[in-house]
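Much of what follows relies on a compact textual record of a protein's fold. The record below shows the convention in full:
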Amino acid sequence: MRGLAILRALGPLGWSVAVALALVAVVALGRGLGLRWDPFDLAGRRLAAAETRAVAAGADAEARRLEVEGAAEQARRLDIHHQQHLLVARATDHAVSHARNADDASNPLDPDRAARLRGRPG
């Protein structure tokens, strides 16, 4: 009987506090049991946004991986080109040296042969 007497003695402010405490207790108990109330589907929207960001991040990571592979391939091709350039330069220097040291290096060419080498008819 004592609890009923306390409830009768509560004024409007006391009833408001009692209702608020009861509501908090019900919400806490529901959350504890795993109940969720999401009328605007905010959790679903957050999940969709997170999935979209994850897909974009995956595509961005793939693009970066392809960029790195492309840069490595380009560096490899540039190194091959540089090596070929050095080989050609060495071979050219060797051929020029032999041509200048040849026995007939100081003899003038026949005019017909010189014209043919220039690409003009004799």
About this structure: The mean pLDDT is 89. DSSP finds four helices and no strands in the chain.
